[in-house]
Amino acid sequence: MKFEIFTPTVIHELGQRKNQEDSVFPAKGASAETDRLFLVCDGMGGHSKGEVASANVIDAMASWIKQRTLPNGVVTDGIIEGAMQSAYQRLDSLDDGAENKMGTTLTLVSLHSGGVSMAHVGDSRIYHIRPSKREILYKSIDHSLVYELYRAGAISYDEMATSPQRNVITRAVMPGEENRCKVDIAHTTNVQAGDYFYLCSDGMLEQMTDDQLLDVFCSDGSDEMKAATLVSMTEGNKDNHTALLIKIKDVIAEPGDDNLPNDEHISSYNEKTVPIVVEPVEPSPVPPAAAPTGNNTAAPSTQSSCDKKGINKLLLLLMILLFTLIVGCVVYFLLD
Fold first, then answer.
1. pLDDT band at 269; cut points 50, 70, 90
2. Does 2-307 carry CATH code 3.60.40.10?
């Protein structure tokens, strides 16, 4: 299959931060209708670290994928995983041994002859939106502590947005460790003219629900107007604001398209629906997420899924709740 797109619209705003730790590919002012690879990374680690991590991961991955796309135009999962390893090696070469490791989230969308591949690590997000039906066809699942607590039933969906731990992520692309976090990859061939793929850092999401996001993408007006609306709706938060709006102009069918894979999870994804977790690819070693000092912090981990720290925190929380309940019962019976 072949895709025709409109010139992508890039948001890359400093926000209320002193430095820009987000990186985007293609860069603002450099996007074109011929682009087929898109990345957004949200760096962590404080001044002069987060931006280094995000910029180098994007550069390493974009170079790897462009050089290794198959002759038939397909970008395989193996190519994406190889690009991840290239990014880790780049960060390893820049690692200064500091305890506070730099790191970054990652979102990637590739339009290729085999369909659309979407990959992510962390809490930067990917949406596939169909304005003609007011639908979110796909939303990547955040690798975050609050989402793990939500899945475990410890907090409600609404409490995720206000939790003091909402910026703790359970996966990040970081240097210096043997166990590396895996990247989640999804695919779709269910693409129509007028669809959007939206990649964004969490700075674009703190004050926006999915319904509000749909309101923007389903509204009349140019993509530049939509981008301006998105920026205005998020300007109150303190983070950087980075996003890519990719609008599909046309999808041209080719022989063999019926045999292409499509494991994108179709769901209404409204705010009260429990999201469907994308089935992960085989683990690719990635460094455990230490706790950098940016807006996002990454929870350390040592197991291959890089989620052990989040699980440990959940168990600690449950133990505290159980202990409090037991103490309360003892006091009640003594006073009674």
1. very low
2. yes
